[in-house]
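Forwarding these from the shared drive since the link keeps breaking.
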Amino acid sequence: MYRYLTLTLLTILSLNRCEKPEAIGMSEVTGFGSNPGELKCYQYVPEGLRRNAPLVVVLHGCLQDAAEMARLSGWNTLADQEKFVVLYPQQQSANNVNRCFNWFNENDYRRGSGEVLSIRQMIDHTIAGHGLNRRQVFITGISAGGAMAAAMLATYPEVFESGTVMAGVPYGAATDIPTGMAAMSGVVVLSPQEWGNKVRAQNPGYAGSWPRLAIIHGVDDAVVKIANAGELVKQWSNLWGISPWQGQEETSFQGNNKVTRTTWMAQNKRAIVRYDIQGLGHAIAVDPGTGPRHGGQTATFAKDVDFHSTWWAAEFFGIVQQ
């Protein structure tokens, strides 16, 4: 039954016909490691790349692939402008029939195993191959890719400066498909300490800084309920040692009455930022156009809400300036 429910739910996310990655300037990378998660790897390297450039890891959603995610999000266009490398892990149908990253499978979200280790190997290989800056590694993802982005930040905090979770769930919210469905529906509610302990359990003895986190979620998301954004805040505020209830809220952010931004400060930096977007369901927030903060393309899985989530993720990462 759960398999049927999963297939039915995710079928509504069916996307436009995908392009081949090579058609949009992306190249496949092989031989990056033992690849226990059996993922594919693509990268986009802009012309004029210099040594010590940043790396952004971008994770697609269910029924997507690397090329579709690149086309809708606009990350490659931004990479051309700002000269950073974009890495696209890609799920295979043999691992998940809907091409979802297996964020609910303990073997795939536990440090040192499965899909999270494959992505870590891709990152190390890409950094070494292009002489990139290990202090400027970032990750973002949508839906199952958002949940896997949270898993990467939780299992390998020493790798990332910050990350963005779009329409995702907290780390450790599920252990199989039934609990994954419950998490998506927003009924998995834990205390900040309980959420934080799930992350700390993957990193016993870790004394370094935790990655900063931006959360982007559609208020009208019927697939992954927005309650998960609050649970993510609880998890990461606990890691940062701050209260999840004391964020500074800005309504009509940047003059956009669809967007509310809430910011939590710690150690004189934005530790957590949350964007709640009215009128956005389970989709990438885009703002097509030619302006400095515009970008992305609309599709079944991407909606124009006058907010280019890619640009604002990059702003949070510190690789573009307002």
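-- next protein --
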Amino acid sequence: MMDGGMEIAFFGPGLFPAYRNGVLSYYRGIIRALHERGHRITFYEPGTMTSRSIGSRSNGPEWAAVLVYPPNEEGARHALKMAREADILIKVSCGVLGSAGRLDTWFEEAMLTARKGGARAVFWDVDAQATLERLRRNGKDPFRRLVPEYDYILTYGGGTPVIKGYRELGAKTCVPIYNALDPLMHYPAPCEKRFRADMSFLGNRMPDMEDRMEEFYLHPARMLKRKSFVLGGAGWEGRAKPPNVRYVGNVRPCEQNAFNCSAKTALNVCDGSAALAGYMPPESIFEAAGAGACIITDNWEGIKLFFEPGREILVARDGGAVAEIISSLDQDDAREIGQAALCKVLAQHTYAHRAAQFEMVFG
């Protein structure tokens, strides 16, 4: 922990939406870990047009003060004034998170002028590949000239390509901070009979997941008619499935640990866009590792930064390779790989580690 801790002001969308959102789980994990290390965090979020007053306090968690402001320029300006004593001002990129991003352009510039004394301004980009592509296409994008003015650019992963992209735009410092395991939420649980299988997959049905699902899950299931498969997540009811695939529907958060560790192996695949972007481990891979699952994953760039293939995770180039792994892997080896993955994430990839990295960035 840094002596005395820091005052950190986050400006972004609400921390607790009604729907599951991996990006917000990422911010919650990091913010809570920063709080545990002695830093004081205030999260400023836009409310509704009927918000009672600027700076009204919502029922936030114990690890962050949450202050709500009306979603207009006047409300945002007053929110920035309230944060003027912060050591670090952080603008969360919101464009991928819905209507909360409509003040993005205003905030991106106002954040820079709100710095007082030695305060530092940070832009934390949750979709850096998309941002960089937008800036490359449009030389007159307002954010392009602001990039060199920020003290730090932090990103939701992305690796060397993202660092290079931001550096080419004049960024002083660009540091990827990846998602991680929250060990309070994801841990080994007793196996449950209804989730037992040779391979499980947990994920909601999304358009950019259809082809990956077909190749890495349904294709192996059709090849291995004598093996059992369990499928969890919303939206798969109408999807044609082989007889050896057992669909259990939506899996509640309190059931996810048991789901991940009850089958011999747990499949984890990136969606189409993430697979192309690379260097972006999905949060689900850390959740499964935290439960001690033997993970089979598709091959994505940068995986060796997080797990050792063959010892801590099994990597498959296509559905045929998945079928080969399932056919040849015995239960003892699967258990050993799952334990190695659990040890790795606890030793190197929890949100406490990401919070320590954040501290290192700031001195």
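Residues 47 and 70 are 5 Å apart (CA to CA). The radius of gyration is 22 Å.

- D.
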